[in-house]
Specification:
The protein is mostly helical. The chain has two domains: 106 residues, no CATH class; 135 residues, no CATH class. The protein is built from ten helices and two strands. It has a two-stranded antiparallel sheet. α2 runs antiparallel to α5 and α8 packs across α9.
């Protein structure tokens, strides 16, 4: 009885945090000026860079962790100020030197493996996060900013509820023991339904959007989101941690909340560029 009550309380906290956090992020994306959105993205990119290097112990040297976080934040602002290609190439070269060269001269410096992790966390995840800025700069781009969140988070939510209600068959027990095949299909349905609802809201606000197109984006986006969730679960399992952080009660860290979004963003960027 006590265990059931504890689970119910944990689920309630999880729902409240998800609703409040999602509402805050949506309000910033829909209402804030571009520099305000960049501040939000800097928090996400910097936090993700820290979580991918510190809790995982992929990077143990403090100086390299600090450098990684600063570079991750810098990437967001470099995209904001539209850094030219030459600047990106020079920056990558200097980052490479800072990550690896100290190890050539002293064994107390970061290892080669730590350097690889630092460069990855400094650039790959922040560049993907910066695709929000790319979406913003498209025609009518403001309304596209919520698409990765709706597809990923609505899919996550229905996957959780569907898995609890109907889950019988394990989807990938080695990586994520709690995920089920039934929850996976609910996730795809959740992404499609969430985007369909978002399309209806946009139509009510006078936007001419295609509901079938939005539903398709939601379904494929939820599929990509599920892959992202499993990928980062694989990383956590490989280093023996449950969550990347403890910033959000019952949700973990920033990466635990945005892992699926990171896999939906490239899809949205390609989709809305072509269609």
């Amino acid at each position: 009885m006590q265990q059931s009550s504890s689970r119910s309380r944990a689920l309630l906290i999880k729902i409240l945090v998800a609703v409040c956090g999602s509402a805050l992020v949506a309000a910033i994306l829909l209402c804030a000026p571009l520099w305000g959105i960049c501040i939000l993205l800097s928090i996400v990119a910097g936090g993700a860079a820290y979580e991918l290097t510190a809790p995982t112990r992929f990077v143990t040297k403090r100086y390299l962790r600090i450098l990684t976080v600063l570079q991750a934040v810098g990437v967001i602002w470099a995209v904001y100020f539209e850094l030219p290609l030459f600047g990106w190439m020079l920056w990558l070269f200097v980052s490479f030197l800072l990550a690896f060269t100290p190890g050539v001269f002293t064994p107390k410096a970061a290892s080669a493996q730590e350097g690889v992790a630092s460069v990855f966390a400094s650039f790959v995840i922040p560049v993907i996060t910066a695709l929000f800025l790319y979406l913003f700069r498209l025609e009518n781009g403001r309304m596209y900013l919520l698409v990765p969140l709706v597809a990923a988070w609505c899919g996550d939510s229905l996957a959780l509820l569907g898995g609890m209600a109907f889950g019988r068959h394990k989807l990938c027990p080695r990586v994520s023991p709690n995920k089920t095949v039934e929850g996976f299909f609910c996730e795809i349905a959740g992404g499609a339904l969430g985007m369909l609802l978002y399309g209806v809201i946009l139509r009510a606000c006078g936007r001419a959007v295609s509901l079938p197109l939005f539903a398709a984006v939601g379904a494929v986006g939820a599929l990509c989101g599920a892959l992202g969730d499993l990928t980062f679960s694989y990383i956590k399992r490989s280093v023996g941690i449950k969550d990347f952080g403890s910033l959000m009660p019952e949700h973990g860290g920033i990466l635990d909340r945005f892992d699926s979004v990171l896999f939906v963003l490239p899809l949205c960027a390609v989709w809305f560029t072509l269609f």
